[in-house]
Amino acid sequence: MKAHLTRRYHFSASHRLHSEVMSPEENRATYGKCNNPHGHGHNYALEITVAGPVDAATGMVCNLVDLDGFVQQHVLARFQLQNLNTLPEFTRQVPTTENLCTIIYDVLHHGFAPARVEKVRLEETMMNAFEYAGAEPLRP
Q1: What is the pLDDT of residues 76-95, one digit of tens each?
Q2: pLDDT of amino acid 135
Q3: Alpha-carbon distance 107 to 67, whole Å?
Q4: What is the dihedral of CA 63, 69, 74, 76, to 10 degrees?
Q5: Whole-Å CA distances, 77 to 33, 119, 134
Q6: How many CB atoms lie within 10 A of CB 61?
Q7: pTM for the complete prediction?
Q8: Which are the contacts of 64, defined by CB distance < 8 A and separation ≥ 6?
Q9: 131 near 48, Cβ under 8 Å?
Q10: SS3 of the chain
Q11: Which residues pair with 116 in a beta bridge?
């Protein structure tokens, strides 16, 4: 029997949306107020969904202590109160919430073993949330 578990976490970080391959005018037109040279911050809500068989002995998909510990060590400690623009992950890509969501998914997908990571959902504001469930081939 396969079941899903979704766990919610919170962290705060700042970023400036700015692409080095675009002119200052293109950046302002593309990112608007999010291109502010001083950046801006968000209080992110992160949802992680894992799935797997329900263990007959424990009755759980995975131990919440294991999931919480992994997320704390490898995600929250990495991004909490950070200026995303200064992190190595964003030296070649714009620190959009879409890109942050895919990075968090990859960290979990390649590191958390007790259950399969199904998707990551990252809420940036009350109006914006992004989800990533792994790479899919693009349709032509």
Answers
A1: 999 999 999 999 999 999 99
A2: 80
A3: 13
A4: 110
A5: 28, 20, 23
A6: 21
A7: 0.93
A8: 5, 7
A9: no
A10: CEEEEEEEEEEEEEECCCCCCCCHHHHHHHHHHHHCCCCEEEEEEEEEEEEEECCCCCCCCCCHHHHHHHHHHHHHHHHCCEEHHHCHHHCCCCCCHHHHHHHHHHHHHHHCCCCEEEEEEEECCCCCEEEECCCCCCCC
A11: 51
CB-CB contact of 48 with 7 (8 Å): yes
Using CA atoms, how far apart are residues 15 and 37, in angstroms rounded to an integer? Answer: 10
pLDDT grade for 140, boundaries at 50, 70 and 90: low
Q: Are strands 40-53 and 82-83 parallel, antiparallel or unpaired?
A: unpaired
pLDDT digit string, tens, across residues 100-123: 999 999 999 999 988 999 999 999
Pick among 3.30.70.2470, 3.20.20.70, 3.40.630.30, 3.30.479.10: CATH of 2-60+69-132 = 3.30.479.10
Instruction: Supply the mean pLDDT for the chain.
Output: 95
Give the pair of three-digit tokens for residue 55. 């263990």
CA 50 to chain centre: 14
